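Hey, quick one: can you model this chain's 3D structure?
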Amino acid sequence: MSKALLCPCEDVTTEEVDHAIAKGFKDVESVKRYTGFGTGMCQGKQCLTAVARHLCQQKAIAPAQVVPFTPRPPLFPTELSHWASLPLDPTEAPPQGVPPALGLSSHALRPTEPVPSRAKIVIIGGGVMGLSLAWHLAGQGETDVVVLEKGYLCAGASGRNGGGVRMQWGTRTNIALAKRSIQIMKGFARELGINVWLRQGGYLFLARTEQIAKRLEASARLHHEHGVKTQLLTPDAAREVVPQLDIAGVKLAAFNKDDGVIFPWPFVWGYAQGCVQKGVKVETFTSVTGFTQSGGKVTSVKTDRGDIACDTVVLATGAWSPPLAAMLGVKLPNEPHRHEICSSEPLKPFLGPLVSVLDSGLYFSQSMRGEIVGGMGDPLEPAQMRLGSTSRFLARYGRAITELMPNLSRLKILRQWSGPYDVTPDNSPILGRTPGLENLLQLSGFVGHGFMMAPAVTERMARWMATGESDELFERFNLQRFADGRLEREDMIIG
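Sure thing. Here's the predicted structure for all 495 residues.
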C-alpha cells in the first residue's frame, strides 16, 4: 500500500504523503505544497478526498480538522489563446479582489499550548526573511529566538513568488547581495539537507524602448565592475538564446547565464527545519495582537497564545509590516501591491533562462516539472492588501506572452494566484533600527524580490545583531532615510 497512488496527475503515493506527515506537514494545504498533489490537470478534483482520507487514517488530523486547500482558477485548463482574445480595456482598473485569509488563529492545527513567556529575540514573520534570519542567528550562537508565523509555512509572500534569482540589478548593493545569496543557495542542500532545485539557466532581459535599453546598458557596465558577466545582445543574438522568441520590436537584450530559478517552498522549509534543529522555536498559526513598550523599547509581544517578554523584536512580515508597526506608533512607507502569477500544464524542457520584458513587467520561466510559470505587473493596480485572481491578468499576460512566443498560444493555464509586492518609495528595503524604538528592527520593503536577497541580507543582519559590529547596510537603508530625504533608488524591478 505504500506505493498506492493518491494523486494520479502528479504520481503522489501514500508513501510520499506519509513522508510529509513525518516532516510535520499535516494539514491539507501544507501537504499539497510538500508533495505537489492537486497541482496537475485535475487541480485536486480527483485526489483531494483520497489525500484527506489518508491523513485521517494515519491520525495526522481528525476528520473535523480537514480544511480543503484553496481552489485556484481557472476552473478548467484553458489555452492562452483564449485568454489573449478576451476584450481588454487598458484604462480599466483591476478588480479589488479579496483580503488574504492568512489570519488563521482558528485553524484546527493551531497549537493549544501557550508560546514561551520570554525570549531574547522575537522575529515576527515566518517567511524566508524571518526564518533565514533566525537560522543565521543560531549560527552566531543566538538560539534564544522565537519566530512567529500567523499561518502555515509558505502561506504568505514567500510561498507565492516565481522563484527567480538574479545578479542583474541596478545598484552596487543589490548586485553584491544577490551574488552572495546565489552562492549560499548553491550550498543549501549540503548544509540544510533539502534540495531547492537551483537551476542556473540565466535571465534574459528584453528592452522594447530606448529608455529601457539605456538602463540595460548602464546596469551591464555596473555588473562588469562587480564580476557579473552580463552580456548585451542584439535581438538576433537573443533569439539564439531562446530560438522561439518573436523579436519584433525588441531593441536590446541582456543575458547573464549565472542567474536562475529556485523552488521556493523547500527553501522556506529547509530554513525552518534548520532553525528547529538548532533550538529556535518556530510557532505557526500564531497571530500578533499587540505590544507593550517602555522607555523607548518594546518590552513584550502580545499574541493570541500569550505574551512573550523580549529584548529585541524584528519585524519581518513584508507587506504586512505597516499595520503591525502602527500598533507601536511607527509609520512605515511600505505599500502592498497585488501581483498575479500563473502556471501551465507541463511541457518538455525547452526554455533555459527566465525571460523578462522589462518595459511591460512580463516574466516567465520553465520549472523543473516543465510548467511555464510567469506573471506580469499591472500599472493600474492600486496600493491595497488585496489578493485573489482576475481574468484581466490572464488577458494581459496571454497577449504579452503569446506575442513574444507565439508557439505557446495553445498552452493551457492550470492555475493562477497572487501575492503582495512590498513597495517602498525608492524600491529599496527598510533595514535596521527604528527611530524612537531602538530594539525594534526592520526587515521589509523588498518590492517582491526579497526571496532572492534573504540569504545574504539576513546573514549580515545576524552578524550585526550578534556581534554589534558596524555594517553600513543598516545605516544606509534604515527607516530614517525617508525623513532625511536620502533615497536609495533601484530601477531594475520586474513587474
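One thing worth noting: The CA atoms of residues 431 and 442 lie 5 Å apart.
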